[in-house]
Amino acid sequence: MYREEIEKYIDSHRQEMIDDICLLCRINSEKTSYQEGKPYGEGASKALALALSMAEKYGFSINNYDNYVGTADLNDKEKQLDILAHLDVVPAGEGWTVTEPFEPVEKDGKLYGRGTADDKGPAVAALYAMRAIRELGIPVSKNVRLILGTDEECGSSDIRHYYDVEEEAPMTFSPDGSFPVVNIEKGSLSGHFTAEFEPSESLPRVISIHAGTKVNVVPGKAFAVFEGLDDDLVREVSEGVEKETGVSFEIQGRNHTLEITAVGVGAHASLPTEGKNALTALLLLISRLPFAECGQIEALHNLVKLFPCHDTAGEALGVAMEDELSGALTLAFDLLEVDGGSLDATFDSRCPICSNEGNVLEPARRKLAEHGFTLTNDSMTPPHHVDGNSDFVKTLLSAYETYTGRKGTCESMGGGTYVHTLKNGVAFGAAMPETDNKMHGADEFAVIDELLVSAKIFAQVIADLCA
């Protein structure tokens, strides 16, 4: 019911929707330092203000929750459905080729730019779904609320602030994954660990290492400074490491030192096999060079043992596992800072339904301790699971099938969304299952036709659930 009207409406608003997405994606809304009245910095606040002004322009009642979260309501009736999206983005990163990160462009049916897929494009698609219901006059007896957050990428403190004062809707979906329906989100352990050692001036030595931008991003670059090594030797060894890992090395002499840049491919940490980890490749290079023995070098060699380049399952750390519903644990080593006397590091693991602190957190703690590292975590995030046979999930799958002609199924993912702690929350769209939109990487894009069909699906879901 209403399919013909919904499809005609969304198709007729194609360019307007793209223009709105581009307006939002021109804002760098990466989390920055707190400013008074702007908890996540200038960019996030600016993106939220723009999105709310759009919603208000289209006739929706809006609310701003202290610049943490903004909302747009379809009506003032009984709460039924929340659509939970976010306007913050991960750092721009390196390696963009189609356009600059915050200069969105349309090319070959795709919209390129940071945030086009994660999650500004889907947020606008949800807004246009609500527009379709409102402007077509499709009758609803309950409310749908679009909730727009600004800290999803860095811990979701925004949404906790929101739910401190608001109750969950009976049903919630987040357009921050892929179709059909993601009713299982893996648990996670962002394992932060440290080590200290006696500084050493013996040559050759590693002066420093810096790698990673965020814990949930596989590092596409990693940096080190060496002293006391011949650059020809380093180049020769790096060629062998490149053949093994696909990570290349740039080597530059400066003031009696060598500056090393490992260049891999960034990726979302929940999908570590889709990237080429520059950090683990850099550590492998270091392990094959003749540095003077010291506590620091011993620690770096131990990191290679615990986080070998091609181990994305946590086998070396002793946490590998899988189950039938949610698949295998994944692990990515994403952050590392090293100087002459200390080491600070974090890995990102996504853990299946069968995981718990007893079989992930504690084994990781023991294994790290055996190699001289101290894990600082005292807890992990448990997995999230919503019944795939519920009327809510069945309604979502039915709308997906109607507008795509594909079979709707329930899926599991490693990435966590806003719904992870909500009793009846799932991820739903806005990319098709086969689309790799390079989320968190260079040249992020959204397929425009997928955004359009997402808006149609969302509108149908609103009509069906809120009738």
Measured by DSSP, the beta-strand proportion falls in 25-35%
pLDDT under 50 segments (min length 5)?
A: none
Distance between the termini: 11 Å
Radius of gyration: 24 Å
Backbone structural class: alpha+beta
Mean pLDDT comes to 96
Number of strands: 26
Helix content bin? 25-40%
Main sheet record: 8 strands, antiparallel
Number of DSSP helical runs: 11
Principal-axis shape:
elongated
Strand order of the largest sheet: 14-15-13-11-19-20-10-21
* Quaternary state of the chains: single chain
What is the structure about, briefly put?
The chain contains eleven helices and 26 strands. By secondary structure, the chain is α+β, with helices and mostly antiparallel strands. The longest helix has 18 residues.
What structural keywords apply?
alpha+beta, eight-stranded antiparallel sheet, elongated, six-stranded mixed sheet, 11 helices, single chain, 467 residues
Structure, described:
The chain is of the alpha+beta class and 467 residues long. Helix content is 31%, strand content 27%. The chain is built from eleven helices and 26 strands. The strands form seven sheets. An eight-stranded antiparallel β-sheet has the order 14-15-13-11-19-20-10-21. Strands 1-2-6-3-7-24 form a six-stranded mixed β-sheet. Strands 4-5-26 form a three-stranded antiparallel β-sheet. A hairpin with a 2-residue loop joins strand 4 and strand 5. The protein is elongated and about 75 Å long. It starts with a helix and ends with a helix.
